Each structure stands twice: as structure tokens, then as C-alpha cells.
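fyi for ur records
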Amino acid sequence: MKEKLNGFHVALLVYMCEVDVTVFSLPHVLAKNIGTNGWVAIFLLSAVFAFNIFLYQILFRVGEGRSAFELLEGVIPKGILAPFYLTLSIFWIALGAVVGKNFILLYQILAFQTTSPEMIFLLFCLIVYALLSKDIYSIVKAITIFFLLTCSMNLLVPFFFDNWSLVRFTTSFFQGTESGQTIHGWLEASLVFVGFEFILFLFPNFERRQKVFKGIYIGHAFFTFALLLVAIVSFGFFSFQEVQALPYPVINTMEYIELPFINRLENLIFTFFLFANIVSTVTFGYMGQVTLKRIVPKLPDKVLVFAIILLVFAVGCFFRILRQTEAWLERGFYIEMALAFAMPIVLIPIAMVLKRKGKAAAHESG
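which gave:
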């Protein structure tokens, strides 16, 4: 009997799925698109995505814990779905590759200027392979360790108090943006929440209780709290104009942390976020893996995972400039955000139809 994921596992998983390289630029994005005291927008955006999680909760209840594939194949022949599955799987694998390569390029600029980013990315892919070749329960146990390492970075907040000032927040809200309040600006700010939709692929692994969704909400709330810390520290550490000008304010704040026994502490701190980006690539790779498995169910898992890692590395090697990965990552996250909302909206009616058919069949047989 396979072990099931409980609320604690899922809370940590949701937190780690949402943490990626977009966190480093969040204060800049808020200042550029939302304006003064842009950190307040995190509450609004978090509420929108909490509603999205609620849609998944409805889907889990109505679909009785069945996977998205079971629901789709209950009304549409698998042969027709195969091209759709293939497109989605390639998209998720490529998105995981861009997430990883974007972090590696940034990491290489900060700490390993003379090292080939492809060599670093190869090591990154080997770690992803080691995780992706395991079952989902083993992956979640590894993510628990990564969570402890990544989450511990929140304890650094007191180090910024000496240079932090409440005066820098000003009394105005949502003013001073580059092009006013736009839908595109708010959408760009909301990209930081992409990742939790991974839970859709874990429905068969959930305990058959709605309590598991409490863990999902807790994970999302804890991530929201972490974003607030990041934004409030940056908005109070730099002036509003500086936050608008600095592409990665979070990294710049780390440069001000000084300890007598460590030089360039920001490089060490940044290394801890490697684990969060590994998780992001692993989760997107897992989504691609289980989707491809519906097309080639007899292909051994080891072979499939090896092929996925080769594709991740190939896609990653295509990108050599940080600006290039940032542009493609933004496009990919827009598509992923649309999918995050579209999947439950499409699947809930299908689940309701199948549920009615099941009740009708049970009534006729009775």
C-alpha cells in the first residue's frame, strides 16, 4: 500500500513550489507596476490565488479524488487527448528548464564568473534526476529538508533593522508607477504565486480527507507571509526610487549583512535558494512525467526520467543570457498561470457529469 500525503507534507510542498527566482525581483516588480507601498498588493493577489486553491478543493470533492487524467479520459478518448498531453508535457519540462537555467545564470554572475554556466547547470540537472527518479513520497521527504534550509533564511530579517526606516514607506499608496495601474502590471506581480497548481497531480496521493486542503491553505499563507517580509524589508531598506531601479533588491540587501568570520555572505545565502529552484524544476518535470506516462504507459520510469532530464539540459543550454531567460520565464509563467485557473474550471463540470453518470449507473444496477 502506497503512503499517502497528509496536510503537513502538502503545506511544505506548496510553500516550496511557490518559492523560486521570482522572489528576488518581487519588490522591484511591485514598485515598478503597483507603486508606493506596493507590498499591500500581496494581500490582494494572495486572496485571488487562495480562491484558485478553493476551486481545486471543489474539484477534489466533486471528482472524489480522481486524477485529472481519469476525469478527462472519462469523456474524451485517450487517442484524441494524446497531442494535448504531449504539448502540455513538453511545455512543463521546458518551463522547468528555464526556471533552473535562469537561477544558474544569476548564480554564475554573482559567485562563479569564470565557471561555465552549462557545467553548473549539468550538476543542477543531475540533482533533479536524482529526485525525479524517486516516487512522489520520497520526493516530498527530500523537499521537507529543502524547506528547512530555505525557510531558515527568514531568520535573517533582524540583520536589516539598522538600515531599515519606516519613513521610506511614505503615506501614499499605489502611486509613482512607470505607466500607471495596468492589468499587465498586476499580472506581472502575481507571477510569484505560480507553482501551487502542482497539487492537481497529487490528488490520487492525498489522504481521502478534505483536511489535506487545510495544509494547502497553510502553505500558501506561509508563503504569503514570507513575501510580505521580503517586500517590507526592501521597501524600508531602500528608497522607493532605488527599489524601482534595482532589478534584484533582495540580493542587494544581502550585501549589507556582515559577519566577522564570513566574507561575501550573500553568496552563501543565495546558495540556499538553490534548493527552492531545484524543487520548482522537479515539480514541473514531474508534471511532464506523469502526463507523458499517459501516452507511453509501458515505458520504464527510469528511461522516461532520463529522457526528461536530457530535454531539460538541452533546453537550458539554448539560453545563455540572463535577459533571455527572464523574458521566456515571464512568458512561460503567464501561460502556467492561465492553466492554473483554467484546469479546475474545465475539470469541475466534467467531474460533475461523471458523478451523475456514476449515480445513475448505480441506481440502475440497484
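The chain has 15 helices and no strands. thats all i got for now
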